[in-house]
Amino acid sequence: MKYRYPAEAVDGGVFDGGIFGGGIFADNDEAKAAFCRMKLEEQELLEEQAASAVAAAEKLRNLPHWANAFSDEMNLEEKNKELTVAVGALANTAVQAVKAYLGNFTGLLGLVDTLKTQVMHMAWSSNESIERKAAVDYDESTGHYAVLLIERQSSAKDVKVPFTGAKTYTAKLKVSFRRAQAKNDAARQICQALVDQAAGDLVQKIEAMEIF
């Protein structure tokens, strides 16, 4: 078979490719058919590549996009002869740290009040070894979002001070903090879903999430 592309008027005939925008000079119909198959395969490949590009763009659009992401974890400990004093000092330390973490996310400062309330109302005198609570705040107007997970790692213990007979209470708290700014609908949906989450399920949800 003979190919000549683009089409030229020569003896032997010219095949005008029509939708292919070209032509072929061939000795027989078999050559023309082969050329058509080749051009169709090229067209199908281009269509597949275009479809893949569209699918990739759609997938990217559906992924959550975040900005200003930050996370940290701290372990706090306070000791005092009075349990309430030790817990109060622990709460104040946690509050100051979270305020610093929030930075310019000022619309989420309500999270600080929630944190202090949660710390103060944990069962510090309980024999339970672990107690966890979670809190989340979301400013829909800015996309600013923050979550807290606090864990009372051990119950308050009475420790006798040598030679005095006095008792000292030790309060320990682990604080996990995450913040980010939702930049697209997928990220905003995650934020809103966690805000709507029941308090009992929120701890497990936050522990399992990998959003940023």
From TrEMBL:
This is Uncharacterized protein. It comes from Phaeocystis antarctica.
